[in-house]
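Let us work through a complete example step by step.
Step 1: write down the sequence.
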Amino acid sequence: MLQRRHVLAGLLVTVSLLAALLLHRVLATAFFAVTVAYVLYPLRQWLGRRGLPPRVAAGVCTALAMLVVLALVTPLAAVLYLRRGDLFAFFRQLPPEIALEVGEFAFTIDVYDGLATARDELTAFAVDLATAAPVIALQAFLFVLLLYGLLVWPDRLRGAVLRPVPRGYHDVVIRYHERTRETLYALYVLQAATALGTFAVAWALFAALGYPQAFTLAALAGLLQFIPVLGPSVLVVGLAAVEFVADEVARAVLVAVLGLVLVGFAPDALIRPRLARLTTGMPASLYFVGFVGGVLTVGVVGVIAGPLVVAFVSETVDLLASANHAHQQRLD
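Step 2: predict the structure and record it as tokens.
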């Protein structure tokens, strides 16, 4: 029986690799559906304990996920698109050219050429997005279908994963499962909460400082919160540089100090500790390596896959260290 399970497990791996090869165009959609199902699984369990049938509980979780996505993406996309003119008008306040000197080297930055290039790139991106709208709609439908299917009977998937694994290694699989859940909570829930807090603080600060594009700049700050290590501090430094080049030295210092403290530091310091129990506490440096490496290697899916792989490496090191420690204790 054990040999039969191992053969079936090998067939499962082979068939999965074949499916990944043939269905690679929707592999990213399937991956995101699995990760979101991981995050929604506790809610699915809670609804089940409240007496909801499995299909109804899965439907509620799926609908909630789609509402959250729409609530986060739609206002941001609408603001960035509808107020793109105000955003470019803000950057046009810069002088036509900026001369920089670093030691013996001097060079000039043509601001207007840079803005024209950025505008052309955004226009091309909007056209490509409109062209790909039917494909995006199909992938969104597939995402909803997969997410619902994964949440209907989640225990069956758990049994299918554990059954081919020898009982002595079940703890290893469970450790990977727990690390996956905690890492995905850190990537989805914690980052989203921190981004929302960053948006609120940045909107209040930029409005108080008199920026007419305060809402748009705050939306950018919240979006930048998903980029590890750098985050919204990049935007704050950029605004301070704009003020400095415009000979507003005092205002530049004010923007830099208040922005870095209130926008760049405060949301992380206030929100993250309260949600830290949901996460693995992975160092920001490792998260940054996984984020950048994943994006450069596999594209958008690397935003989640990169840090997740780094978390797996970290968990494997912990397992190996625990095994070595136990072995050393037996020798002693």
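Step 3: interpret the result. Residues 206 and 214 are 5 Å apart (CA to CA).
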